[in-house]
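Q: Given only this backbone (905 positions), what sequence would you predict?
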């Protein structure tokens, strides 16, 4: 009987007959297996199971419970759909782009040796991009169905080359590749080295070249898309997140750290495409094994659907001819270091080393070295038909994220110096021999005598190539990448009246700035205009920060809802999960939480939805641990509030060295559009939040905020008068909190955060020595410093006579300055040079310790006694306090000064 007849006979059976048939079939298989196990042993069983697996794989069946499948394409030839485009035309387009990339980078390095750039990465990824551009990536005109695409950073010249053919960039622009400051070619714009939205805000959407940050951001963008849809802030759509990454990039923990989240939440709107060119910067990624197989195990183990695109069409005939699996077993024995040699040295090497058994030699009988050379280059990641089949299967897959592992050649088509060589990544210029070979291989119609001019090639605006790619982009919704800001401000944010209750202090109660923040956040969540846009983000520390009541109030987001009754059900703080939950509880992952912050903080641009993230975490595990992601947030113009909780070196009593943060505000100096504040009181915090909401969501400014909050409880006073002047000072970084009374030598005491209370105590201590102290709240040394830097520059370059704000604020307040902070002395020392008076910075340089706040502040010399004594010492230096008074003060204050400073202990 034929296969068709057998199937028909089986389907004709009644349900009872089918059940008996299957029972007999199961019994026969088990009896056969039992015989082999008892007579021939478990090794023979393993061999039979391997042969069964091979049979299934050759017929395109991949059992779901296998972490690894044979080194074959997941989709066999017979399962490839018809190609919907013009294969020949698309190949020509890819090759034109390869050529223009090589010319762009080579020309840049001829003009400015060492300017850098990368040729080989784009050469390996061109077809993977082109299939997406021509058939899958939906652009901004697709509306909510548009795709978000994370492009591989080192391949960015390819995006510029394509924009050149599309007419979005001119040749003058390409001439300014990596020349962004005063572009030397008139009429051209500077092109950034890699994807940078800050530098090219109309072009790039996502910065990706800091390895590992693209993948984790892509995962959380896909997750946040679902969050917006489940909460009703965005209609459900078919939009996808595509991320292109390198095989070597998987050595970065950020690349693989969130794979489980994507699978656990069933993010079938997420597609990773891994450009497996088998090489990283220095050599093979996995020379002694196969990186594709390793990555398959990784992703399958994490719950992803894996599609491998290993071999190109030139191998299909041999695979069909190999009925006994000899070629498959040779593939399994192949290692990447060996594979790299074949791509570099061609068919002769392949004949001698790969086809090394009688059975394999028989497969290639009659094939020439040229045909074998074609085999060495026939990799799935350069085969348009096989890429299309993989992409189509990925887009149609449901229930889990998809990764496509595509095997390519680094430097494909770029000549003998570059292609598949260990130096490929670092090649910035092509030799004459490379140019000739590349021109021939890519089919670029440029005369040989013109090659020395390194000419770009544009087939013309009316050429079939350009008309084709423009038609395809129009059909798919416009150009990609393209950044369009869909929300430009105008959100009705809370005014002063909303925050007024927090201006009035704590009513004699002792609270922390963290408690003040939680109270304000709870009120914001109830706000009729912006409450729905608030996105609290917590990496498994909500209870630490006193936010457990908010969990019961608005719920933790879960796409599955809550499938269980929580153990604290019935209490006021019951743990509530909901598909419409508002809090993003990320688990123990600051990197994941920051990636979520970026997704929420850029939704205004991608979707026109002005979500307002409040990311709260241990300050020690924020900027220090995830500074690279903070920098990426700054680059892509994210908006929102980043809260460094339990902050300060001495305010977090007991925790010790690894938890006590004295440096985050120093790290915050780096990101130019990150505004950093260390408020002492609830009203300061309220003023900063009001300003942030107005600037980011009312006016649409591209800034975001870092605010430290502490867990030390004390009475919060009402805002001093005049309130408008105080509010201005809070935002500018400094204001007079309490003026000293009486006559005598004067001193200016700056305090930040809870250390402001120590300055107030010091003010009282100084009275007994006849010293009058004014106490200032220094809310932001970064703001003071940047203002002073700008004023100094304006005076130097522009002839303006504006004084720094810190100088103006101190006008009329005589005496030296003692600036005490719970952070490094470097922070207040930022403004030392702008003040024409004695200045002393007290800070917490050194490792943290486990102890009480009082003991820690004594150890780091930032308590009231040290502040008071330092003030007296500065006045003594001016001749306003006697040596006798200074010695008496040391005795009175009980200071036992150590010879070795805290930072060396």
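A: Predicted residues:
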């Amino acid at each position: 009987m034929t296969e068709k007849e057998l199937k028909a006979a089986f389907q004709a059976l009644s349900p009872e007959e089918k059940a008996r048939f299957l029972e007999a079939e199961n019994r026969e298989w088990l009896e056969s297996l039992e015989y082999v196990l008892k007579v021939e042993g478990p090794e023979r069983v393993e061999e039979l199971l391997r042969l069964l697996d091979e049979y299934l794989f050759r017929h395109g069946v991949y059992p779901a419970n296998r972490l690894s499948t044979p080194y074959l394409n997941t989709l066999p030839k017979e399962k490839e759909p018809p190609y919907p485009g013009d294969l020949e035309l698309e190949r020509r387009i890819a090759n034109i782009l390869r050529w223009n990339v090589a010319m762009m980078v080579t020309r840049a390095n001829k003009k400015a040796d060492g300017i850098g750039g990368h040729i080989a990465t784009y050469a390996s990824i061109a077809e993977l991009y082109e299939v997406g551009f021509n058939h899958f990536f939906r652009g901004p005109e697709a509306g909510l169905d548009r795709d978000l695409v994370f492009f591989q950073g080192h391949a960015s010249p390819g995006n510029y080359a394509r924009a050149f053919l599309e007419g979005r960039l001119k040749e003058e622009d390409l001439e300014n590749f990596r020349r962004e400051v005063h572009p030397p070619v008139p009429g051209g714009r500077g092109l950034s080295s890699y994807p940078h939205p800050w530098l090219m805000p109309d072009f790039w959407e996502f910065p990706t070249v800091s390895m590992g940050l693209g993948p984790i951001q892509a995962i959380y963008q896909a997750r946040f898309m679902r969050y917006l849809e489940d909460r009703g802030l965005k209609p459900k759509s078919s939009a996808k997140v595509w991320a292109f990454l390198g095989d070597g990039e998987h050595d970065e923990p950020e690349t693989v750290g969130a794979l489980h989240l994507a699978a656990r939440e069933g993010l079938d709107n997420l597609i990773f495409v891994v450009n497996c060119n088998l090489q990283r910067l220095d050599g093979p990624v996995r020379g002694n094994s196969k990186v594709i197989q390793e990555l398959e195990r990784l992703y399958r183990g994490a719950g992803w659907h894996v599609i491998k695109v290993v071999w190109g069409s030139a191998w299909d005939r041999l695979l069909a001819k190999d009925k006994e699996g000899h070629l498959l077993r040779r593939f399994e024995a192949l290692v990447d270091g060996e594979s790299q040699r074949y791509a570099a040295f061609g068919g002769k090497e392949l004949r001698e080393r790969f086809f090394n058994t009688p059975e394999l030699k028989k497969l290639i009988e009659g094939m020439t070295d040229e045909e074998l050379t074609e085999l060495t280059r026939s990799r799935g990641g350069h085969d348009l038909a096989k890429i299309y089949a993989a992409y189509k299967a990925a887009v149609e897959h449901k229930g889990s994220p998809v990764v496509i592992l595509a095997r390519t050649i680094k430097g494909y088509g770029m000549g003998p110096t570059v292609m598949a060589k260990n130096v490929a990544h670092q090649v910035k210029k092509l030799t004459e021999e490379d140019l000739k070979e590349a021109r021939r291989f890519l089919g670029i119609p440029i005369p040989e005598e013109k090659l020395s001019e390194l000419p770009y090639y544009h087939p013309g605006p009316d050429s079939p190539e350009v008309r084709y790619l423009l038609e395809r982009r129009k059909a798919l919704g416009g150009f990609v990448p393209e950044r369009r800001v869909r929300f430009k401000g105008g959100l009705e944010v809370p005014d002063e009246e909303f925050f007024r209750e927090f201006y009035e202090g704590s009513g004699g109660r002792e609270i922390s700035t963290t408690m003040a923040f939680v109270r304000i956040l709870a009120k914001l969540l109830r706000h009729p205009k912006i409450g729905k846009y608030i996105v609290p983000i917590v990496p498994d520390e909500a209870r630490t920060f006193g936010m457990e009541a908010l969990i019961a109030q608005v719920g933790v987001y879960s796409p599955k809802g809550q499938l269980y009754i929580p153990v604290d059900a019935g209490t006021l703080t019951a743990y509530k999960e909901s598909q419409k939950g508002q809090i993003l509880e990320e688990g123990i992952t600051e990197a994941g939480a920051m990636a979520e912050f970026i997704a929420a903080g850029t939704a205004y641009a991608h979707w026109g939805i002005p979500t307002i993230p409040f990311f709260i975490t241990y300050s020690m595990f924020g900027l220090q641990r995830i500074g690279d992601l903070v920098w990426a947030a700054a680059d892509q113009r994210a908006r929102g509030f980043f809260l460094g909780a339990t902050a300060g070196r001495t305010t977090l009593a007991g925790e010790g060295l690894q938890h006590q943060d004295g440096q985050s505000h120093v790290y915050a100096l780096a990101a130019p559009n990150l505004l950093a504040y260390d408020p002492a009181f609830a009203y300061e915090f309220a003023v900063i939040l009001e300003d942030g909401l107005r600037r980011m969501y009312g006016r649409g400014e591209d800034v975001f905020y870092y605010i430290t909050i502490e867990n030390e409880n004390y009475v919060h006073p009402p805002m001093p008068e005049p309130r408008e002047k105080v509010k201005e000072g809070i935002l500018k970084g400094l204001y007079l909190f309490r003026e000293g009374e009486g006559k005598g030598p004067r001193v200016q005491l700056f305090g930040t955060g809870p250390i402001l209370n120590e300055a107030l105590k010091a003010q009282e201590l100084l009275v007994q020595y006849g010293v009058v102290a004014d106490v200032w709240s220094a809310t932001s040394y970064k703001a003071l410093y940047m203002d002073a830097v700008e004023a100094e520059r304006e005076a130097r370059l522009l002839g303006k006579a504006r004084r720094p704000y810190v100088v103006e604020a101190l006008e009329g307040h005589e005496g030296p300055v003692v600036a005490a902070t719970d952070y490094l002395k470097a922070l207040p020392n930022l403004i030392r040079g702008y003040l024409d008076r004695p200045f002393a910075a007290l800070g917490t340089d050194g490792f943290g310790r486990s102890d009480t706040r009082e003991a820690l502040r004594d150890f780091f010399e930032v308590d009231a006694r040290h502040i008071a004594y330092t003030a007296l010492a500065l006045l003594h230096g001016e001749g306003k306090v006697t040596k006798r008074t200074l010695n008496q003060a040391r005795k009175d204050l009980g200071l036992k000064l150590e010879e070795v400073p805290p930072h060396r202990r």
